[in-house]
Amino acid sequence: MNPVSMNVVPRHVAIIMDGNGRWATQRGQPRLYGHEAGVRATRAVVRACRDAGVSVLTLYAFSSENWFRPAAEVGFLLELFVRTMGVELDTLHAEGVRVRFIGDRARLPQTLTAVMEASERRTADNPGMVLVIALGYGGRQDLVQGVRALGRRIEAATLRAEEITEADLGATLALGDLPDPDLLIRTGGEYRISNFLLWHLAYAELYFCDTLWPDFGPAELSSALAWYGGRERRFGRTEPPSSGAMMEPADDQ
Ligand code: IPE
Ligand code: IPE
Ligand code: MG
User: Fold this and answer.
1) pTM for this entry
2) Amino acid 248: pLDDT
3) Which atom of ligand 1 is nearest to the CA of 31?
4) How many CB atoms lie within 10 A of CB 149?
């Protein structure tokens, strides 16, 4: 095995699932039709990631900016999430998947937060892949709530500003207890982050493809994983870290 393929399976894959609306429009259908198709793609990709040995999969399902879409589309998406979790939870649980949600729940309807909490509770002790669903999530909002949490500790005199480390801030953020994404996939042809995991993507490998999300399946995922396997991850050094291909920058800065 050559050195670059040592990191063959990313521990953590994050996906910006984009292109549902355009997929539907291309078919002369309303955008909502694309979101339904997007759910089918998601189901297959979750399973394919699990089968590939990915430990954490984070899916961007609804951003903090998606609230600015027309109310009818927002309402449809929120209902779709409730419906989808209702249909999928038994299977996810049987497959040993641990479901978690990140994002601001305050604006979400109670019907949805109830399903989210029930899903998290039921799968909390599962041993398999962690499936993180970002819903109402924004990277900047995540950072703001993290800074506030540190600020409260300073106000309580349990922390001094000069002592704050990267690890301290990282621990206050969503996903603080999980490894950073190794691979970010964005479908739909746009080359941007759209306020996804701003802090956590610092050293992720970025994979952009034109495929619209409803057309992204296990074969496209395999291509992305194969591409990832060929990356040389140097983390700012001149050579990849020798033993741990997963090694990350030091925490103590
Ligand atoms: C992604 O697809 C799904 C969500 C943002 C909820 P879009 O709805 O953004 O589809 P396009 O980008 O308009 O095609
Ligand atoms: C990003 O897609 C958010 C999700 C996939 C949930 P958007 O379609 O909202 O992003 P922009 O508007 O193209 O940046
Ligand atoms: Mg989009």
Assistant:
1) 0.94
2) 53
3) 8
4) 15
Span from the CA of 34 to the centroid of ligand 3 (angstroms): 11
180 part of the active site: no
Ordered structural domains, the chain, with CATH: 9-143+181-229 (3.40.1180.10)
Cα separation, 216 vs 204, in Å, equals 20
For residue 17, give the ligand 2 atom closest to its CA. Answer: 5
Segment 68-118, tens digit of pLDDT = 999 999 999 999 999 999 999 999 999 999 999 999 999 999 999 999 999
Q: Are strands 183-186 and 98-102 parallel, antiparallel or unpaired?
A: unpaired
DSSP codes joined into one string, 40-101: HHHHHHHHHHHHHT-SEEEEEEEEGGGGGS-HHHHHHHHHHHHHHHHHHHHHHHHTTPEEEE
The three-state secondary structure class of 130 is strand
Residue 22 alpha carbon to ligand 1 centre in Å: 8
Instruction: Work out the pLDDT band at 5, boundaries 50, 70, 90.
Output: very low
Asked whether 230 and 243 are in contact (CB, 8 A), the reply is no
66 assigned to active site: yes
Task: Please give the structure tokens belonging to residue 108.
Answer: 């979400």
